[in-house]
């Protein structure tokens, strides 16, 4: 398995350049096609305003969309040209961010986005990352808004709890795990099975068969929440990537995140690859 198509979210925000730089590095590393997607999500005003100014508002939004997309494409092409990348595709969509990204994610092996930032002027909704993680059906690499990213995937922390989501995240990250310098498997309060073995032992053997050599770090009796425990381990191990399952469920048409997933999306300090 390798990454043959990488989808990166492009917008007019201040974090886009760093996001595209990481996506370019990954595309070069895996000789993958890099697809940049710019989404313009129109603001729909109240009905009484649309009744009087519908056509005028539509025309203004279309003008803004064309200008914004043109500027974004110019920056995208300039950065791509400087990197010397040739396997590139540029796409635009006039739609909801999650809908557009989810559709294109179906045709990608990896999706690259950024953590939410209320101070960013891109117009992307604050709940964009969590919705995309839970609906895309593909692995989503989320980059933090703070700090530099000299490397992504050299020292990987795998958050393991033997769940379906965790296993999917691991399966989706095999190319990264195989090329990493060191891989740490971190478990929090794991329990032995009826036959005396632990899911950790079985998991380590599974990874070894795939050519991934790991170091197991087990935590017991943890009093802080799991999300902060993982971030603490990541800092202590100098990890530059966390691989973990994205947990959540739909309730009354709204997505409700698990505690560790929410903590990670809100307070991440290094990139996180999530799968649901």
Number of strands: 12
End-to-end C-alpha gap: 19 Å
Residue stretches low in confidence (pLDDT < 50, at least 5 long) are 251-255
Strand order of the largest sheet: 3-2-1-4-5-12-9-6-7-8
Q: Rg to the nearest angstrom?
A: 20 Å
Count of DSSP-assigned helices: 9
Largest sheet, described in full?
10 strands, mixed
Principal-axis shape equals: globular
**Coarse structural class:** alpha/beta
Strand content: 15-25%
Share of helix, binned: 40-55%
Instruction: Report the order of strands and helices.
Output: EHEHEHEHEEHHEHEHEEEHE
Write down the overall mean pLDDT. Answer: 86
Task: Give an account of the 3D structure.
- The structure is a single chain.
- With 276 residues, this protein is of the alpha/beta class.
- Helix content is 42%, strand content 24%.
- The protein is built from nine helices and twelve strands.
- The protein has helices spanning 16-30, 47-83, 97-105, 128-135, 164-172, 174-179, 199-209, 226-236, 259-267; strands at residues 5-10, 33-40, 88-94, 110-114, 140-143, 155-159, 182-188, 214-219, 241-245, 248-251, 254-257, 272-275.
- It has a ten-stranded mixed beta sheet, sandwiched between helices. It has a two-stranded antiparallel sheet with strand order 10-11.
- Helix 4 links the parallel strand 4 and strand 5 (140-143).
- Helix 1 crosses helix 2 (47-83), helix 3 (97-105) runs parallel beside helix 4 and helix 8 (226-236) crosses helix 9.
- It is globular.
- The protein starts with a strand and ends with a strand.
């Amino acid at each position: 398995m390798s990454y043959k198509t990488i989808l990166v979210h492009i917008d007019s925000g201040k974090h886009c350049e760093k996001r595209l730089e990481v996506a370019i590095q990954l595309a070069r590393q895996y000789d993958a096609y890099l697809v940049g997607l710019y989404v313009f999500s129109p603001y729909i005003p109240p009905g009484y305003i649309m009744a009087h100014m519908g056509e005028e508002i539509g025309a203004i939004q279309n003008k803004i969309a064309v200008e914004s997309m043109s500027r974004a494409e110019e920056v995208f092409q300039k950065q791509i040209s400087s990197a010397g990348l040739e396997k590139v595709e540029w796409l635009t969509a006039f739609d909801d961010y999650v809908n557009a990204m989810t559709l294109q994610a179906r045709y990608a092996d990896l999706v690259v986005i950024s953590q939410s930032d209320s101070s960013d002027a891109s117009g992307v909704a604050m709940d964009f990352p969590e919705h995309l993680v839970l609906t895309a059906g593909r692995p989503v690499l989320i980059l933090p808004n703070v700090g530099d990213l000299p490397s992504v995937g050299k020292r990987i922390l795998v958050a393991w709890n033997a769940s379906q989501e965790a296993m999917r995240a691991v399966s989706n990250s095999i190319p990264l795990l195989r090329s990493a310098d060191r891989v740490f498997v971190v478990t929090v309060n794991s329990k032995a099975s009826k036959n005396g073995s632990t899911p950790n032992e079985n998991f380590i053997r599974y990874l070894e068969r795939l050519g991934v050599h790991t170091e197991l770090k087990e935590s017991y009796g943890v009093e802080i929440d799991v999300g902060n425990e993982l971030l603490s381990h990541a800092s202590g191990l100098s990890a530059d990537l966390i691989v973990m399952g994205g947990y959540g469920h739909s309730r009354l048409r709204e997505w409700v995140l698990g505690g560790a997933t929410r903590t990670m999306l809100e307070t991440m300090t290094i990139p996180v690859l999530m799968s649901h």
